[in-house]
Design goal:
The complex is a heterodimer of chains A (383) and B (394). With 383 residues, chain A is an alpha+beta fold. Helix content of chain A is 50%, strand content 15%. With 394 residues, chain B is of the alpha+beta class. Chain B folds into 3 domains: 10-123, Acyl-CoA dehydrogenase/oxidase, N-terminal domain (Butyryl-Coa Dehydrogenase, subunit A, domain 1, Orthogonal Bundle), CATH 1.10.540.10; 128-232, Butyryl-CoA Dehydrogenase, subunit A, domain 2 (Beta Barrel), CATH 2.40.110; 235-387, Up-down Bundle (Butyryl-CoA Dehydrogenase, subunit A, domain 3). The N and C termini of chain B lie far apart (45 Å). The chains are: A alpha+beta (383), B alpha+beta (394). The interface between A and B is large, with 49 and 48 residues.
């Protein structure tokens, strides 16, 4: 009976990715957070090294690995920074999988392949200034005009939005009908180099500062007919499919982050002395850390069960919602206890713990809030 | 090949179906009656034995059908659905503790005399470790065994001994030396009809059908051939077996939590308040969703620990520390969880939550044993903290 989901090949991959993360990513995180920016070079390098398409088929420009290879990638980036994990996951788990799933060969060649090479950066466009979790209420509108679509509207909180070369976006193409608010939504690949696309501003956030989160406008933006991704009017179903992979991604790097925060806090507790001994020798501190470790392993077990389902091609809406909710709760709890354990050191701006604490707060909101996950679960439970 | 092999196979599904039928026919219909009577018929042991449900952990040579610890886990999950946890704990004390100790540490003579009829369910066992003055601190045992020729003479007392009030034998931990370290305890199989052995059943607020007892040893003579393992090996034997006991408790707690949630949801559908069923209030929907996530999380952790045990039994190289760490985590996580879910089940019942005619209060009382028995929550935290290189308060 195998005791690990990972094979020796995965372990080697972890080593390779880990070395890249430790040498080319981790040393710069603090500076990037300070600057509120990071170089596009991160995408280029990750693409060059083959890390952006680990679980994509070779025919689409990927490495042809299984989902566990992607798990390795997300864990390795997640352990150093939730922010960098998020921007990379937007590329690998959010903006690109719908192109493979719903796209034509031409769209795969034009958009997916360069994205997996890291020479084209993607974003996912769902949320608007007036609607987030309630996807059916989006108002950005596309109207057919001959061979083109004319888009008008705005998108909000779009990670990678300011630097994106393309945005996988849901847009309303018809008014919602009585009894079917989900109808009339379609998915597009929006080429941001076309006229009418405006980055209104980069939003100043309290966490994940290195990532660009943008407010975007489409002002009579004309897209060619082949910008439509999948079936016109099926966009709601398609974006729900996308959200499954998105939630898997954030769950995987979220647990990895919680584990890293716990490890850092444990190291600190063994070194920091108070009242004549390391604080980790006080039973309240050691028991608090033991509780956190238990939570991390428990949620990790749940997430790995989901990964196993995902890897076997099971569309496990219930388990994915559970994982997303559990990880958001976990990382916030662990990070907060970490700040408490580290005292003043946990509040210093730019420290690993304070930075990740701020970043992890986003985990309970983005990708469908805690409340939305509970609503999904309640529906599945039939209550 | 990546990904986990399934823990359960086709034969386990068949076994689960048989266990489900047995519990539905022989246990669940009587649960209320037994709980009211604070008792259940002793013949249940023989029925369980005859149906083969004491068998999966043990080799065929002694009347078992294994070893197959995944099958054992299936039995524990299904037994929980009988919703009479005192009964389940008596059966567990007999099989997961007394019988398992004989199997692991006994010679063929002891196995023939005690294990074989235990698997049949015709001879009942209990394990005597806890004392009035010491529980989790196993090394603090004061019941004493003094060697006298080819016999040992036991003096002392035990408390909270599940199934001890009517068992035919008790595996007793007694002090055989007073040296520093952990080599002072020895295990003995004591027949309940031995002169000088007395007992009285304890009245508890939980596990009310269980035959939990205080035991008294007054110059009880035990032949040396009833010594279980080496002199001085007792502490390590007990610590080793704790791991399996804790996985079993975790499986039972998850099953209890699942039942509590089902019970709560069923009531919330029927009960109306402010003109609609309670289930239609979003706070309850979301609370139930949260509980379902916690239960599923606890189950995933428990299965991870179980997987290590099954692998170890099948001869795989399993790092001991990892097994202890995950087992302790599963125990800590699930026992508190079961009680929390049961508490919400009482809460949704409102006043009816306090009524004996509803099972909510019983789930709640019975679940409260979990964070205490088999090593308290604090002991689990100590063990986990030690694996992290942190202090444990000593």
């Amino acid at each position: 009976m195998s005791l690990s989901s990972f094979t020796e090949e995965h372990d080697l991959l972890r080593k390779t990715i880990g070395e890249w993360v430790d040498s080319e990513v981790a040393p710069h995180i603090a500076d990037w957070e300070d600057q509120g920016d990071f170089p596009d070079e991160v995408f280029r390098r990750a693409g060059e090294l083959g890390f952006l398409g680990l679980a994509f088929p070779e025919s689409a420009g990927g490495q042809g690995g299984d989902y566990w290879a992607q798990v390795v990638f997300l864990e390795e980036v997640g352990r150093v920074s939730q922010a960098i994990a998020m921007v990379l996951s937007v590329q690998t788990d959010m903006s690109t999988p719908p192109i493979l799933e719903f796209g034509t060969q031409a769209q795969i060649d034009r958009w997916l392949k360069p994205a997996l090479r890291g020479v084209s950066i993607g974003a996912i466009g769902i949320t608007e200034p007036d609607t987030g979790s309630d996807v059916a209420s989006i108002r950005t509108r596309a109207v057919r005009d001959g061979d083109e679509w004319i888009i008008n509207g705005s998108k909000m909180y779009i990670t990678n939005g300011a630097r994106a070369d393309f945005i996988t976006m849901v847009v309303r193409t018809r008014e919602s009908e009585e009894g079917n608010p989900w109808g009339g939504i379609s998915m597009f690949i929006v080429d941001t180099s076309l006229p009418g696309f405006i980055v209104s501003r980069r939003l100043d956030k309290v966490g994940m500062k290195l990532s660009d989160t943008a407010l975007l406008y489409m002002d009579d933006m004309r897209l060619p007919a082949d910008a439509l991704l999948g079936v016109e009017g099926e966009g709601f179903k398609q974006i729900m499919w996308e959200l499954q992979g998105e939630r898997m991604g954030v769950s995987i790097f979220g647990v990895a982050g919680a584990r890293a925060v716990l490890e850092e806090t444990t190291r600190y507790a063994k070194q920091r002395e108070a009242f004549g001994r390391p604080i980790g020798q006080f039973q309240t501190v050691s028991h608090r850390l033991a509780e956190m470790a238990t939570e991390v392993e428990a949620v990790q077990s749940l997430v790995y069960e989901c990964c196993d389902l995902w890897n076997r091609g099971v569309y496990a809406t219930e388990e994915v919602a559970m994982a997303k909710l559990a990880v958001g709760q976990l990382s916030n709890k662990v990070a907060d206890e970490a700040v408490q354990t580290m005292g003043g050191a946990g509040l210093v701006e730019g420290s690993f713990i304070s930075r990740e604490w701020l970043a992890m707060r986003i985990g309970r909101i983005g990708g469908g809030s805690d409340e939305v996950q509970r609503q999904i679960l309640a529906r599945i439970m039939g209550i | 090949m990546s990904g986990l092999e399934p823990l359960f196979h086709d034969e386990h599904e068949a076994y689960r179906e048989a266990a489900r039928r047995f519990v539905a026919n022989e246990i669940a219909p009587h649960a209320e009656e037994w709980e009211t009577a604070r008792d259940f018929p002793r013949e249940l042991f023989a029925k369980v034995g005859a149906a083969g449900f004491f068998g999966p952990k043990f080799e065929e040579a002694w009347g078992g059908s294994g070893p197959d610890y995944a099958a054992e886990a299936v039995w524990i999950e299904e037994l929980s659905k009988g919703m009479t946890y005192g009964t389940a704990s008596d059966l567990g004390a007999h099989s997961q503790l007394a019988s398992l100790y004989i199997d692991r540490f006994g010679n063929d003579g002891l196995k023939d005399r005690y294990l074989r009829p235990s698997i049949d369910g015709t001879l009942l066992g209990a394990l005597g470790v806890t004392e009035p003055g010491t529980g989790s601190d196993v090394n603090g045992i004061s019941t004493r065994a003094r060697q006298d020729g080819d016999h040992w003479v036991l003096n002392g007392s035990k408390a909270f001994i599940t199934n001890g009030a009517w068992s035919d034998y008790v595996v007793v931990a007694a002090r055989t030396s007073d040296n520093p370290g952990h080599d002072n305890l020895t295990l003995f199989v004591v027949d309940a009809d031995s002169p000088g052995f007395e007992r009285s059943r304890m009245r508890l607020i939980a596990w009310q059908t269980s035959h939990t007892a205080e035991l008294f040893f007054n110059d009880v003579s035990v032949p040396d051939r009833n010594r279980l393992g080496d002199v001085g090996a007792g502490f390590r034997q007990i610590m080793n077996n704790f791991q399996w006991e804790r996985v079993m408790m975790s499986l039972g707690a998850v099953a209890l939590a699942e039942l509590s949630l089902e019970t709560a949801i069923r009531y919330a559908r029927d009960r109306r308040a402010f003109g609609r069923p309670v289930i239609e209030f979003q706070v309850w929907q979301h609370r139930f969703a949260d509980l379902s996530v916690r239960i599923r999380t606890g189950k995933a952790l428990t299965y991870r620990a179980l997987r290590l045990h099954v692998a170890a039994e099948n001869g795989a190289e399993v790092p001991r520390e990892e097994l202890v760490r995950l087992t302790s985590m599963a125990k800590l996580f699930t026992q508190r969880l079961a009680w929390q879910v049961a508490d919400e089940c009482v809460q949704v019942h409102g006043g009816a939550g306090a009524l004996k005619e509803y099972p909510a209060q019983r789930l709640w009382r019975d679940a409260r044993v979990g964070p205490i028995g088999g090593g308290t929550d604090d002991i689990m935290r100590n063990i986990i903290a030690r694996t992290m290189g942190l202090g444990t308060g000593h």
